[in-house]
Each structure stands twice: as structure tokens, then as C-alpha cells.
Amino acid sequence: MISSDAITWNAPNEEHPARTAGQRSYSAVAKGDLDEWLTIYAEDCVLEDPVGPSMFDPEGKGHHGHEGLKAFWEKAIASVDKFEFEINDSFANPGGNTCANIGKIKTSFPDGSYTTTDLIMVYTVNDEGRIASMKAFWEPERTMASFTKP
């Protein structure tokens, strides 16, 4: 498991390539390290965060490849001061290439305001253990309703 003050892992933690890739992704985001984050994803990956149309992806078709990930980073990650991940459950069948993590992400902004997102994140890895697909199921309206001023 990745050790980070930004990740609280309250879930099963048996070794699994998709679980490990998800943990590595959380760690890179928490550190604000785009270059490290890109190494975790396959060149032909698809990221849907959230799944469906949203402020980050108006057409709901996902972000494709590393260029798509870079654009998503600029829209959704770069302006955030601090991410805190709390994973409360994780499902990954041995011998498979997919893991679903259930938890929440606290997103704090430079002015001290924050939101909390309850979500399910589904990771699928390729044969090299790199993320081929990530689907985050969450509702923007619920996240915005959690907005807390400093």
C-alpha cells in the first residue's frame, strides 16, 4: 500500500494490480505530481470522472490518452490546494484486472473552502499494470451541496 498522509485506507488491502494502481493514482494526485500520475495510466487510457456529462466533460465521452488526462488535470486537479482520500471499502477479485474502491475525497481550495465527494472509483489495468480505464461514479450536485466556506 502507498503510505501518505493524504490517504486513509480503511478497506481490504490484499495485493492486486488494479488496487495498487488506484493507490498510486491517489498518491500522485495528493502530491500534485502530473508526471508521476501519467506514468500510472496507459497511453490509450480512458478516464471518466465523473461518468457521464459534467463540468469537466460536457459530452460525457471521457478523457482519452495522456493528452486527455493533461486537459482533465488542468480543469479538475491543478487549482486544488489539497486532496484527502478516505477509502472505506475495496473489491478486487484475485486473478482479475479490475478493482472498485468506495470512499470520499475532500477537496480543499487555496481560500480554505472545501467540498466532499462520496464516490465509487472503478480501475481496470492492462497486462503491464497500468490503468486502462478509470470510472468515477459521483454526483456533482451532491458534491456542490457539500461546499463549505472557510
TrEMBL record:
Any idea which GO molecular function terms this record carries?
Answer: isomerase activity
Keyword set for this entry? Isomerase
Keyword hit for Ribonucleoprotein: no
One Pfam match, given by its short name, reads: SnoaL_2
List, as start-end ranges, the regions of compositional bias called Polar residues. Answer: 1-11
Region described as Disordered: spans on this chain:
1-24
* Domain SnoaL-like per the UniProt entry, residue ranges: 23-133
Statement: the UniProt record of this protein carries the keyword Isomerase? yes
The name of this protein is: Ketosteroid isomerase-like protein
* Species per Swiss-Prot/TrEMBL record: Nocardioides albus
UniProt lineage: Bacteria, Bacillati, Actinomycetota, Actinomycetes, Propionibacteriales
